């Protein structure tokens, strides 16, 4: 074994020895603790396995890819409905394997597996961080215990959404960052480049657009730990942005906008502080999270004060320092001289404490900023879903803590809260008193579908519903018609489609995933909430009752878009339809629709690419009459 790979073993001193378990017993305990945490996520996630309507949005796009129609929701319209780009393509790759006939079931299995992997990587990363200063000794699960008993954790271990991939990405990034710190501690001179680590850290925007923030902070932490020369820095930057930038060029040229369509429909750049704060409290208060978070904060402050008092110039080394390998000090510290340069010009860190602060601070700051972002945009309608990644990040450095009297007391107190939480604390099915709808999506879908574990597509399409009945009757009769959901659920009339609509059947429905599962792949699904509707996504918000559903489209727009002039629909104002037909010929709307519906060609790709910025920012009035007045410049 090379000298640089040796881990110095602390020698006996005259100081009193702190209590510790024998080496082999401690190792077994640590392995058991990590395995138990992973097993808890696996078992509880499996017991709560389910999928929701949003998962069906992913799987229709996956089925379109497998059918050769490209990453679209409708054959005749290029709209990116998958917020998690990597999740969509991962499901497509897995569904191409012989024997996999239901992408939704694959999403459940893969989501659960990735969630468990994410937790195991995170735990091992924290273990490795602690081993920088404590080569031996028992570790106690503490921070991770704040996540394990949450009903939201169990629910979103599956759900069919990209949450499992998000946890795997976050846990993997933490593991890679700690590994980079370990390498830095062992390297004497200029260290090797870490382009593969930079590449992995840079994938955040493709996991979820909001994880670009995490990518950036983790990359900054990597740079602060190594402080490489400018050539290496440029190499890392190139590796980190290569795939996200390449896909962004594809997105802009293929779809004509800079972000997935749901990000436009949900106004992800908007500000809704009040709703976001209520959403955060919906999670924190439900599980009394302020109790364990308060205990951890007090522990952190106590440890910081003790460390500060023990590091004053001239003070004797603390027992913890005496146990650390030569050159390692503090919770994960590498003490190095400032201003040292390697033979390749690589600059050593400005002191090991800077590297340690970067390592520990990156996930904490990323988690706090992620929570800030969730509050800023107004939260979500699914209980706990958007809070979990932020909480996961903040707790990463304290997922495990070294055994000691204080940490044992802390672990015991957190464990008591965790037991109460797991046995008694459950989210309300709905929050009718809140200004914005937040509900326990898992329980709601169980009740609606009459299935304890709705994990396959059939579980969503076999339950009798008015829309399902009308759509299937239209398909069976061979009618070239539009199944239109009227406002306030007043019915589903079937309206003849215009001759220019090539789809054999069309449907305008609020439950986008359900409609996509019922209609054939060559059917035209019109989302009345804008998530998959290029026109609806670019209208101005008119409702704030449900996060991500602020843009219910006036039915007049739909009738004007896909039916012949003169078509009358009960419940839809004919004057609004005439205004909508006129507005669709004015201003930027013809070009907006052409960017998604015109046949793809090099010229179309270039026009989409160069106009993506303006298209992404464009908004039109939701009311057809106001839109006609604004776009067609009528008095």
UniProtKB/TrEMBL annotation:
Terminal beta-(1->2)-arabinofuranosyltransferase C-terminal domain span = 504-617
Comp. bias intervals (Basic and acidic residues): 335-347
- In the record, what lineage is assigned to the organism producing the protein? Bacteria, Bacillati, Actinomycetota, Actinomycetes, Kitasatosporales
Give the transmembrane ranges: 29-46, 104-123, 135-157, 206-226, 233-250, 287-305, 357-375, 381-401, 408-425
UniProt keywords (A-Z) are: Membrane, Transmembrane, Transmembrane helix
Pfam families (UniProt xref): AftB_C
Q: Where is this region: Disordered?
A: 1-20, 312-347
Cross-referenced InterPro entries: AftB_C
Q: Which organism is it from?
A: Streptomyces tubbatahanensis
Here the segments flagged for biased composition (Low complexity) are 315-326
What name appears for this protein in its UniProt entry?
Terminal beta-(1->2)-arabinofuranosyltransferase C-terminal domain-containing protein
**In terms of domain of life, where is this protein from?**
Bacteria
């Amino acid at each position: 074994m090379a000298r640089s790979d040796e881990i110095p073993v602390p020698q006996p001193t005259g100081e009193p020895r702190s209590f510790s378990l024998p080496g082999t017993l401690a190792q077994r305990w640590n392995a058991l603790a990590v395995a138990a945490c992973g097993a808890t996520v696996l078992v509880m996630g499996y017991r709560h396995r389910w999928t929701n309507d949003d998962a069906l949005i992913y799987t229709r796009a996956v089925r379109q890819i497998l059918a050769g129609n490209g990453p679209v929701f409708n054959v005749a319209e290029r709209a990116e409905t998958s917020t998690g780009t990597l999740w969509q393509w991962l499901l497509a790759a897995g569904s191409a394997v012989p024997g996999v006939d239901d992408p939704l079931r694959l999403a459940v299995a893969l989501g659960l597996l990735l969630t468990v992997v994410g937790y195991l990587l995170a735990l091992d990363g924290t273990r490795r961080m602690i081993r920088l200063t404590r080569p031996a000794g028992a570790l106690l699960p503490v921070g991770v215990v704040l996540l394990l008993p949450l009903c939201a954790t169990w629910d979103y271990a599956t759900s069919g959404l990209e949450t499992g991939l998000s946890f795997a990405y976050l846990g993997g990034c933490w593991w890679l960052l700690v590994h980079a710190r370990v390498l830095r501690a062992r390297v004497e001179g200029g260290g090797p480049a870490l382009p593969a680590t930079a590449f992995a850290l840079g994938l955040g925007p493709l996991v979820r657009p909001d994880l670009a923030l995490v990518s950036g902070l983790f990359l900054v932490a990597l740079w602060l730990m190594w402080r490489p020369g400018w050539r290496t820095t440029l190499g890392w930057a190139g590796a980190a942005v290569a795939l996200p930038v390449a896909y962004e060029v594809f997105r802009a040229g293929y779809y004509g906008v800079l972000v997935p369509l749901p990000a436009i429909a949900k106004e992800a750049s908007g500000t809704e502080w009040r709703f976001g704060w209520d959403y955060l409290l919906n999670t924190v208060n439900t599980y009394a999270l302020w109790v364990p978070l308060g205990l951890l904060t007090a522990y952190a402050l106590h440890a910081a004060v003790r460390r500060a008092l023990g590091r004053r110039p001239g003070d004797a080394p603390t027992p913890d320092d005496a146990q650390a390998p030569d050159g390692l000090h503090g919770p994960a510290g590498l003490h190095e001289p400032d201003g040292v340069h390697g033979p390749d010009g690589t600059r050593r860190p400005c002191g090991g404490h800077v590297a340690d602060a970067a390592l520990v601070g990156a996930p904490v700051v990323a988690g706090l900023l992620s929570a800030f972002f969730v509050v800023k945009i107004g939260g979500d309608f699914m209980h706990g879903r958007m809070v979990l990644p932020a909480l996961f990040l903040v707790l990463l450095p304290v997922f495990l803590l070294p055994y000691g009297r204080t940490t044992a007391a802390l672990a015991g107190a957190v464990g008591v809260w965790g037991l109460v939480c797991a046995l008694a604390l459950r989210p309300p099915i709905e929050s009718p008193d809140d200004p914005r709808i937040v509900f326990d999506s898992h329980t709601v879908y169980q009740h609606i579908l009459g299935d304890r574990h709705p994990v396959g597509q059939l579980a969503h399409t076999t339950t009798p519903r008015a829309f399902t009945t009308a759509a299937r009757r239209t398909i069976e009769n061979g009618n070239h018609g539009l199944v239109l959901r009227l406002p306030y659920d007043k019915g589903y009339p079937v309206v003849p489609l215009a001759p220019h609509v090539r789809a054999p059947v069309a449907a305008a429905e609020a439950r986008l995933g359900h409609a996509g599962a019922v209609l054939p792949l060559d059917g035209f699904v019109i989302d009345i909430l804008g998530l998959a509707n290029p026109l609806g996504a670019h209208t101005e918000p008119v409702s704030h009752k449900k996060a991500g559903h602020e843009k219910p489209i006036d039915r007049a727009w739909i009738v004007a878009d896909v039916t012949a002039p003169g078509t009358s629909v009960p419940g839809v104002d004919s004057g609004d339809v005439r205004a909508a037909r006129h507005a669709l010929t004015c201003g930027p709307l013809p070009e907006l629709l052409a960017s998604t519906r015109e046949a793809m060609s090099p010229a179309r790709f270039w026009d989409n690419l160069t106009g993506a910025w303006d298209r992404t920012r464009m908004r039109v009035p939701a009311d057809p009459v106001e839109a006609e007045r604004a776009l067609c410049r009528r008095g």
